[in-house]
């Protein structure tokens, strides 16, 4: 059995640990055939499976999964929200800008960092305006530096 087929089998039928590992490996393979299976895996009951599947979709460049990833920005788990934001930044699609903007004030530092980094990766005039406004209230030094670097300002 081909490695890809074995990973897909584990993602579909394995234990949570096997599914988690399979999702991560499929992302590293960057094989587009994995996209439909990963899109199903982001709905898994296990947080780490959803987390790895979301990130894998970003690694593969699965722009067709943008709206699936956007829906994960509201996941109950902050690690899933973080990975979906990160994946959206990897995809660099304009459709992700507004949903990411809505999350720029996220309470969780890890999620907020991924949201801001992804907005920076996508870029654009609207992102500059939003991050310029957000800079006025962002207290985290690292995030302030990321934003000011993007805006070309001194912090």
Gist of the model:
The chain is mainly α. It has two domains: 61 residues, Alpha Horseshoe (Leucine-rich Repeat Variant), CATH 1.25.10; 76 residues, Leucine-rich Repeat Variant. 70% of the residues lie in helices and 0% in strands.
Contiguous helical run count: 10
Order of SSEs, N→C? HHHHHHHHHH
Helix content: over 70%
CATH topology of the largest domain: Leucine-rich Repeat Variant
Instruction: Determine and state the CATH class of the largest domain.
Output: Mainly Alpha
Strand proportion: under 5%
Number of strands: 0
What is the level-2 CATH architecture name of the largest domain?
A: Alpha Horseshoe
Structural shape: elongated
State the separation between the terminal residues, measured CA to CA: 55 Å
Mean pLDDT: 96
Q: How many independent structural domains?
A: 2
Question: How is the main sheet built?
Answer: none
Which residues sit in consecutive blocks of at least 5 with pLDDT less than 50?
none
Radius of gyration: 16 Å
Helix-and-strand structural type: mainly alpha
At the fourth CATH level, what is the homologous superfamily of the largest domain?
Answer: Leucine-rich Repeat Variant
Description:
Helix 9 packs antiparallel against helix 10. With 155 residues, the chain is mainly alpha-helical. The radius of gyration is 16 Å and the shape is elongated. Helices cover 70% and strands 0% of the residues.
């Amino acid at each position: 059995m081909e490695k890809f087929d074995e990973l897909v089998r584990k993602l579909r039928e394995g234990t949570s640990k096997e599914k988690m590992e399979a999702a991560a490996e499929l992302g590293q393979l960057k094989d587009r055939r994995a996209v439909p299976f990963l899109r199903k895996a982001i709905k898994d009951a296990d947080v780490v499976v959803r987390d790895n599947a979301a990130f894998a979709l970003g690694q593969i460049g699965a722009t067709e999964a943008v709206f699936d990833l956007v829906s994960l920005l509201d996941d109950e788990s902050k690690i899933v929200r973080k990975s979906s934001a990160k994946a959206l930044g990897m995809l660099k699609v304009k459709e992700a800008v507004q949903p990411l903007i809505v999350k720029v004030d996220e309470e969780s530092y890890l999620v907020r960092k991924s949201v801001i980094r992804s907005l920076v990766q996508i870029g654009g005039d609207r992102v500059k305006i939003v991050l310029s406004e957000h800079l006025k209230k962002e207290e985290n030094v690292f995030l302030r530096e990321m934003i000011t670097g993007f805006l070309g300002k001194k912090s």
